[in-house]
């Protein structure tokens, strides 16, 4: 299936339905309007490694919480500018709030570490030892 969409040069080009859906979900405007940030989650036998893109966010604007097997990353950013001194005609940067929640089972909550480096929040969540629910059952 192909859809028609105008390009910047007023020419008509064809796009597949998959391209249209990808464009919609990869559009930064869509992401910013829905207050989300991108994350990557890796898992190995000992831990989960999470990286969240948070450009322009300071450490004190981030709140991390692990509760009921969910890791919650919350960001509360507020631009504090005295509007009386500035001569704004239009202003959109005031306050933003973003939250992501990840289901991470069998995490050692006391061992979770987080570090913010160059706009990337890196979280290491170690797994509990012997957290496996696997049980060998003897057949009689």
Task: Quickly describe the structure.
This protein has 140 residues and is mainly β. The protein contains 2 helices and 9 strands, in the order ββααβββββββ. The chain has a single domain, classed as Immunoglobulin-like.
The CATH architecture term is Sandwich
Share in helix: 10-25%
How many domains make up the 3D coordinates?
A: 1
Q: What is the global morphology?
A: elongated
Q: Say how many strands there are.
A: 9
Distance between the termini: 59 Å
CATH topology: the name is: Immunoglobulin-like
Report what the structure shows.
It contains two helices and nine strands, in the order ββααβββββββ. The termini are far apart. It is elongated, with a radius of gyration of 22 Å. The chain has a four-stranded antiparallel β-sheet, with no helix packed on it. Strands 5-6-7 form a three-stranded antiparallel β-sheet, with no helix packed on it. Strand 1 (2-6) and strand 2 form a beta hairpin. The chain is mainly beta and 140 residues long. It has a single domain (13-126), classed as Immunoglobulin-like (Sandwich), CATH 2.60.40.790. It has helices at residues 17-26, 28-33; strands spanning 2-6, 12-16, 39-43, 47-53, 62-67, 70-78, 95-103, 113-117, 120-126. The model is unreliable at 1-12 and 28-34 (pLDDT under 50).
């Amino acid at each position: 299936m192909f859809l028609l969409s105008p390009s910047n040069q007023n020419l008509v080009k064809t796009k597949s339905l998959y391209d249209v859906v990808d464009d919609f979900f990869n559009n930064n405007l869509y992401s910013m309007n829905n207050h989300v940030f991108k994350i990557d989650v890796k898992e190995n036998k000992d831990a989960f490694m999470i990286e969240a893109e948070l450009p322009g966010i300071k450490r004190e604007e981030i709140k991390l919480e692990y509760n009921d097997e969910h890791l919650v990353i919350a960001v509360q950013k507020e631009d504090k500018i005295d509007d009386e001194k500035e001569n704004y005609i239009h202003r959109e940067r005031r306050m933003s709030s973003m939250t992501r929640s990840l289901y991470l089972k069998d995490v050692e909550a006391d061992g979770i570490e987080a570090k913010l480096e160059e706009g990337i929040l890196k979280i290491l969540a170690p797994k509990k030892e012997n957290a496996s629910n696997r049980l060998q059952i003897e057949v009689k």
